[in-house]
Amino acid sequence: MSTATTNALHVADSHDLIRVHGARVNNLKDVSVEIPKRRLTVFTGVSGSGKSSLVFGTIAAESQRMINETYSAFVQGFMPTLARPDVDVLDGLTTAIIVDQERMGSDPRSTVGTATDANAMLRILFSRLGTPHIGSPQAFSFNVASISGSGAVKFERSGKTVKERRDFSVLGGMCPNCEGRGSVNDFDLAELYDAAKSINEGPFKVPGYGSEGWYGRIFSGSGLLDPDKPIRDYSAEELHVLLHNEPVKIKVDGVNLTYEGLIPKLRKTILAKDRESMQPHIRAFVDRAITFTDCPECGGTRLNETARSSKIAGISIADACAMQINDLAEWTRGLDDSSVGPLLETLQQTLDSFVEIGLGYLSLDRPSGTLSGGEAQRTKMIRHLGSSLTDVTYVFDEPTIGLHPHDIQRMNDLLLRLRDKGNTVLVVEHKPQTIAIADHIVDLGPGAGTAGGTICFEGDVDGLRASDSTTGRHLEDRTKLKGEVRTPTGQLEIRGAATHNLQDVDVDIPLGVLCVITGVAGSGKSSLVRGSVPADAGVIEVDQTPIRGSRRSNPATYTGMLEPIRKAFAKANGVKPALFSANSEGACPACNGAGVIYTDLAMMAGVATTCEECEGKRFQAAVLEYRLGGKNISEVLSMSVAQAEEFLGEGEGRIPAAHKILQRLVDVGLGYLRLGQPLTTLSGGERQRLKLATHMSEKGGVYVLDEPTTGLHLADVEQLLGLLDRLVDSGKSVIVIEHHQAVMAHADWIVDLGPGAGHDGGRIVFEGTPEALVEARSTLTGEHLADYVGA
């Protein structure tokens, strides 16, 4: 065989590129790009430029859709249906594994252990090695209740119906008192009703329980209580009927209803909901009237006494789950039993992955809803770290969120390790430290929304620096240290803070200035601010919890701006406001105001076609005849925030209430969003800034922002700093939990927690001005900030 033939590339090795041609998902404008396989490619660009649309909405979505199609139609019926992305050619795809920013479910039963399968492995371990032996793995599960029963069962045998008596019992680990939640709730009766009033005088302080509403009428018309007697004069028996009565059937005004005590009623209606999905006034009531305390029976472990009694080397499963994961990894290393060898090995790998990824400070019993965005994302990465899969595409959405500059290096090493195993790694990222390690960079832009969606640059890091793209120009940006800092107008005293890992911390947070709370991931920043700031301090908190909204929600409905716009249209045209809502009377009857008609095709992806009746405008034709300042309601909703600010700020279209909200949206850098753009199409950074703009109107003196630079491009950080300055100059106090050096350098005061994470953290390691922190270089934050400002 000749040498030429030997050296010729085998045809199977020629597929080294993922080719995308003509991508038009969301705001992408016929984008064509070739991405090298088995390399680390970073996608950059301003927030809203189309990065997620290209990476997640096109490449990853098509890969997942094609994998789903390999299953039988029966199995596909149970899987999420995915539509084919709007793209001409997608070639060279490999299996995509997505690690996104979605927060983990805040179900109270979900913990770090249940989310990563570490709990499942521990349960099997204790059911095999625990002494005394109490039963199967479910005897150690706080989600399985112990039940037993007996009765007759009927079944067919040889054409006859046979009856047999059967007994059954299930031994679960759930604590019967708190039902496996770990905490019990107690009601402050003074916040539920005014004891000086009778039922006819409307004593209830619960939202929706006024004397005119149904609930008020049930209590007054039940006949079980004297409606004219003040509650403070009730006997113990009457008070029990009011607060704890079992459900009984009653008739009020000829209507059959159920009367139930106030407390069980509230537990079923209000407390059954996730706190984040409650309306603001109901959430305020819950925070005011209900206290959550550790369950006295299980001590917050969620497990019953039987499950806690079985131990391995003196440690129960409750003790194991409460340990810090790096301590638990050490403990498991000390176990040696050949009968469970493979299980111990897998458990050890999982726990070591936690430590390696920088989450060794968590414990397995930590509720997953309390994890920050960055912690949740890294927790999802755990299952992929030890994977022996190669030649797959890993897709990461800003994996450095919530990471201190010190921790980013560790994350970079993990990304490179995944690549070196022969995988394609695609990362959407803004941080210069991660952009610097890329083999290939794709920069989208030049602007956001309709001004974005094109490729501005493709190549390596040096090429990006030399290019004239927005990212290239801002890559070397460095914010200077503040020369003069503001003088505090007061202080917020925190004494003896001991939430989570805080070690009896005393600190004075200055008010009237920009104060940054920083420290490595897991050092206790959120615990300090959320768990210790007094509730009566007039605090407005803008955290990372996602905005909940359907495709019918948009910036106009979410911010409350649609209300004054509808009223102005109604007044100008002499009709009622409900006509100008696509979710109410003005909706197009053919598509119910959705603008598109969805056809469900069972296990195949549903098809969305633009409604022919309203041509996607969502309103009835008659409604579009009504105008304000020469524009109809559909034209106003399709304007960008910047255009609408101009239109609604002057002339015939002037609506001061809506204009004020629009100004705030422009302030937070969302001038490019359309008023009617569905919330489901917004990126993580856009949603957080939309939330910030909404909260800016609230009456409160102290703003607490949780990593407001999340999802922000280097160019947008400057604008955010300007906004924070304006807030402080208007007399507000701003407390920011942040890792971004630009925000630290811009602060008036810094509180640095550490020195490490978990039980190695929880202490104040520095308080003072950024200048003093750089001079001292006494902490990890000081070192990184000094490098950043070139000191």
DSSP, total strands: 27
Structural class of the helices, strands and pairings?
A: alpha/beta
Mean pLDDT: 89
Read across the widest sheet, the strand sequence of neighbours is: 5-14-15-3-16-17
- Net shape: globular
Largest sheet: 6 strands, mixed
Helical percentage: 25-40%
Mind explaining what this structure looks like?
It is a single chain. By secondary structure, the chain is of the alpha/beta class. The strands form 9 sheets. Strands 5-14-15-3-16-17 form a 6-stranded mixed beta sheet, with helices on both faces. The protein has a 6-stranded mixed beta sheet with strand order 21-24-25-20-26-27, with helices on both faces. The radius of gyration is 30 Å and the shape is globular. The termini are far apart.
Task: Give a quick summary of the entry.
33% of the residues lie in helices and 19% in strands. It is α/β, with parallel strands linked by helices and 791 residues long.
What is the fold's blueprint, element by element?
Layout: H1 3-7, E1 17-23, E2 31-36, E3 40-44, H2 51-68, H3 73-76, E4 89-91, E5 96-99, H4 112-115, H5 118-129, E6 147-157, E7 160-170, E8 183-187, H6 189-192, H7 214-221, H8 236-244, E9 248-252, E10 255-259, H9 262-269, H10 280-289, E11 290-294, H11 305-309, E12 311-312, E13 315-316, H12 317-322, H13 325-333, H14 341-356, H15 373-385, E14 393-397, H16 405-420, E15 424-428, H17 432-435, E16 440-445, E17 454-459, H18 461-466, H19 470-474, E18 490-497, E19 505-511, E20 514-519, H20 525-532, E21 539-542, H21 555-558, H22 562-573, E22 596-601, E23 604-610, H23 633-637, H24 641-647, H25 656-667, H26 684-695, E24 702-706, H27 714-729, E25 733-737, H28 741-746, E26 749-754, E27 763-768, H29 770-776, H30 780-788
Parallel strand pairs: 3-15, 3-16, 5-14, 14-15, 20-25, 20-26, 21-24, 24-25
Antiparallel strand pairs: 1-2, 1-4, 6-7, 8-11, 9-10, 12-13, 16-17, 18-19, 22-23, 26-27
Helix pairs in contact: 5-14, 13-14, 24-25, 25-26, 29-30
